[in-house]
Design a protein that fits this description.
There is one protein chain. The chain is α/β, with parallel strands linked by helices. Helices cover 24% and strands 28% of the residues. The chain has 2 domains: 28-163 and 256-280, Rossmann fold, CATH 3.40.50.1360; 167-252, ACT domain (Alpha-Beta Plaits, 2-Layer Sandwich), CATH 3.30.70.260. It contains 6 helices and 15 strands. Strands 2-1-3-6-13-14-15 form a 7-stranded mixed sheet. Strand 4 (120-122) and strand 5 (128-129) form a beta hairpin. Keywords: Isomerase, Transferase. This is ribose-5-phosphate isomerase.
């Protein structure tokens, strides 16, 4: 096997932070009612969560706020008999601190409702990308996608600037570690001229081969970041193309119909789904 990727395009400026910074769980002092994301988190719980539900608990800043607010509602008696299904180790820790009873997604036959953060989301289709942030410990794109896909109802919480058409940036792709290089080259050929393919490192600086310590997920997969250098016309088409590549296990594109997005801005919240957009001002 070759020791370098002869066909991969190496971006010059794209590097990761050499230090791993774990996302801090939201705390009561971090919940600000002036924050658009907090308003989105609060509206998500108030509008969609009912007593007795099994809830998929998302990962990210808004999800952390929603988890803490959900715990407050449980302690106040406004909600009861809930079970949370975490999408990550971080959301499980946040839920435990908030006093939310937890279950495991492997043992859940039904999830009534789930909420989650996304890295970016496509207008109209609400197809989104997760997993751009560096995975920590036992976090899993597979677990996060499985939990949200099992939910009867799904809401994404996102800032206004991340809700757009013509998406840019990277899509993480999980591949079999044994033949990751061949898979990377095939993906590079697939998007030739439109994207660059780098293997994600676990620590340190990134390079196309994953640096000195390439990341291996808890399931034993390597992570390739497919970094698009031009706007993505259709996330659905990208996902379909990736799924046809030998060696690809999964990817960070999430597509679920129906679902809703709560788009947070300073002027209010826009609730977007398979119905016309409504604006919830001052929520």
């Amino acid at each position: 096997m070759a020791s370098a990727i002869p066909h991969l395009h190496f971006p010059v400026a794209w590097k990761t932070n050499p230090r791993i910074r774990k996302r801090k769980p939201a705390t009561s002092c971090s919940l600000s009612e002036a924050s658009p994301l907090f308003r989105a988190a609060k509206h998500t719980i108030d509008a969609y969560v009912k007593s007795g539900m099994v809830i998929g608990l998302g990962s990210g800043q808004a999800s952390g706020m929603a988890i803490e607010y959900l715990g407050q509602q449980l302690r106040a008696g406004a909600l009861k008999d809930l079970v949370g299904i975490p999408t990550s180790v971080v959301s499980a820790s946040e839920a435990a601190k908030a006093g939310i009873p937890l279950g495991e997604y492997e043992n859940s036959s039904q999830i009534d409702f789930a909420f989650d953060d996304v890295d970016i989301i496509e207008e109209r289709t609400l197809i989104s990308v997760i997993g751009r942030r560096r995975l920590q410990g036992e976090e899993s794109i597979i677990q996060e996608k499985l939990v949200v896909s099992m939910a009867d109802q799904l809401v994404f919480m996102v800032k206004e600037d991340l809700y757009k058409c013509g998406l840019e940036g990277s899509i993480p792709v999980l591949v079999e570690s044994l033949n990751w290089l061949e898979t990377a080259e095939e993906i590079d050929d697939l998007f030739l001229g439109d994207a660059e393919v780098w293997r994600r490192p676990s620590i340190g600086h990134a390079d196309p081969l994953g640096g000195d310590f390439p990341l291996v997920t808890r399931e034993g997969h390597s992570v390739l970041d497919v970094i698009f250098t031009s706007p993505i016309a259709s996330l659905a088409e990208v996902a379909e193309s990736l799924e046809k590549v030998d060696g690809v296990v999964d990817h960070g594109v999430v597509s679920k119909f129906p679902c809703k997005a709560i788009v947070a801005s300073e002027s209010g919240l826009s609730i977007v789904g398979n119905r016309p957009t409504n604006t919830v001002g001052g929520v």
